[in-house]
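Async update (no meeting this week)

Hi team, since we skipped the sync, here's where things stand on the single-chain job. The sequence we agreed to prioritize is pasted below, unchanged from the tracker. I ran it this morning and attached the output directly underneath so nobody has to dig for it. Comments welcome in thread, and please keep replies under the output.
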Amino acid sequence: MVGLSGGVDSAVSAHLLKQQGYEVIGIFMKNWEDDDDSDYCSSNVDFVDAAAVADVIGIEIEHVNFAAEYKDRVFAEFLREYQAGRTPNPDVLCNAEIKFKAFLDHAMRLGAEKIATGHYARVREREGRFELLKGLDDTKDQSYFLHRLTQAQLSKTLFPVGELRKTEVRRIAEEIGLPNAKKKDSTGICFIGERPFREFLNRYISKAPGPVKDERGRVIGQHQGLSFYTLGQRQGLGIGGIKARGAQRGGGEHAPWFVARKDVPANTLWVVQGHDHPWLQSLALDADDASWAAGQAPVAGHYAAKTRYRQADAPCTLAAGANGQFHLDFSDAQWAVTPGQSAVLYDGEVCLGGGVISARA
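Output:
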């Protein structure tokens, strides 16, 4: 059973599996119902695209509603994290709880042997264990978002486009006449889509305005609520015209402002000038709620890690702790390490797993 999203990657995945001799059934997952008829996120449009793809490929398609599971397992946690002042990554949780749990369970109940998605990643079996590997197209690799998958989930999963580059996926789609061959890639998470993020959160989280302070403790503005800001954020601070007096660390008086710290107890947003300001640099982090795709926690030692998607692998040293906690020390300072985001560990092309960043240093 292939998760057909309406996009080109899952469509080509279904085609490739059929070419390989599998009996393929498409599953369209509806994960969000609130304001689903809005301009920002309409699953109806995506379902029409998915159904058109299924028709061209010659497979059945089933529409499955996981909105209740999504709200309970993903969105509730998303709101809890934002209210606590952290910045969660709902795509990581969605993969672990919906696409590779609710969907996988549904597929197994219907008698499927495997599930497949259009993610750019790979699975390799070695000596009875399953390794999660990066996608061969390093510009599209999505292993970061899949690091919480378990051995049981990986054993039942196929990633057909993980062996391909995006340009090749587009070429195949055009060659076989898929109606969505040129459909642009989706951005963001479905329940937010392209809408202004602050406008969306306003509906679920109450505003608690407070002071915006610079590194010397001067109040230079007012924030709308700490939940609406993330570390490293540059846009939407409302202080663009304010200049610093005298030279600032990391930038001159005309340098842009960035969110550097969030003091939840004091309801204070701290900002600094300059992309390279010391407050935005971290040489270490702590993480908890670890989940190891490799099936077990890696031994302490030298690895590479990503603290955000689309970041180059950064050399680091792992010190494993108890109760799902671990500590990473980096060779070079990492920019805007953000509590709530995922720190994901790699050994070459193998994604070992990771955890949720709890603190930085």
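Quick observations from my side:
The chain has three domains: 2-119+159-175, 207-276, 280-360.
The domain at 207-276 is CATH 2.30.30.280 (SH3 type barrels.).
Reply here if anything looks off.
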